[in-house]
Amino acid sequence: MRVAFRTDASVQIGTGHVMRCLTLADELTRQGHECRFVCREHEGHLGELITSKGYGLTLLPSSCSDNELDTKDSRSDNYTLWLGVPWQEDARQTLDTLVPWKPDWLVVDHYALDTDWERALANVVGSIMVIDDLANRCHECALLLDQNLGRVESDYDGLLPEDCQRLIGPGYALLRPEFANLREQSLNRRQQPELKRILISLGGVDRTNVTGQVLAALSESVLPASTELDIIMGAAAPYLDEVRQQAADLPFKAMVSVNVTDMAERMCLADLSIGAAGGTSWERCCLGVPAVLVVLAENQVAGATALEASGAAVKIDDADQLGATLPSVLVALFEPGRLERMSDAAAGITDGDGVFRALEAIGAAGGRD
Hints:
By secondary structure, the chain is an alpha/beta fold. The chain has 14 helices and 13 strands. The protein has helices at 16-30, 47-52, 66-69, 87-98, 115-121, 177-188, 210-219, 240-248, 263-269, 280-286, 301-310, 322-333, 338-347, 354-365; strands spanning 2-7, 34-40, 56-60, 105-109, 127-131, 143-146, 165-168, 197-201, 228-233, 253-258, 272-276, 291-294, 313-316.
């Protein structure tokens, strides 16, 4: 079976869409299928990562500057800007790439694409699968996956064909196998947790340096000097050098790591995670890691709210208020039993096997006739 992916990463978009598509592609490849990617050449496009894993890649030309892709408000929901070209042009360019390859499935993970684009591709692919988080537009697809906590099937009523299968909730979260593999070990070490090691990860780009704001807030907190900070950043993060210098000046042991390949192991060792309220939330939940979630985009609000309501996390709605809110949040986390209760709540949300459930659905739905 041949599976094509249309997804993008950039300084504005972040890396999460490409990363979860790679998780699905890796398992498809392990099962003997062939995968390739179609991405646009935005700054931070992750093309080198895709090809390093052995996948074919077509980089569509970017016809606008990175400033045009950007928005004044990092929480903007004007997702049409993320495509960089009119959808008709993107559809034509994607068609030119896929017609010779004749994929059995096309997986679309892009907030700027909807039913019009999908219909333009429908005649050259066997079936279309959409990965979405928003439930805000119509799709023409055989499968739709929305892995978010709090989402229900009826949220997509009127937006999908009647025969479209809906894969809804964190049970379908697309996590790499190492998270499920370390789940038991991670949960076992949280029987009587203490707040000693904190993992800090604000996404692969962190274009507004929220990491720096977190570190500034921690330096004013009640954390003891023995606390260890594990700070994760992407190579494309524009404030990487500033964060490294800031970490060196902290009163704690702090290590900054770039483009790590052992995130599951690092989460397993962490007693608390401070991070963005995006797709890594499900990685934390699989391993039972209590979290402080910083909401960085409008599409993260619902998921962060649901995670806080479940007891698995505490959310901070405004990154600009980290200095005022994070120290008091940490004080509350030292209450006896608080971390253990948060860990139990997180572990009940997802077991990390979502990619296998998604592949089972793809296999059951079939592809090209």
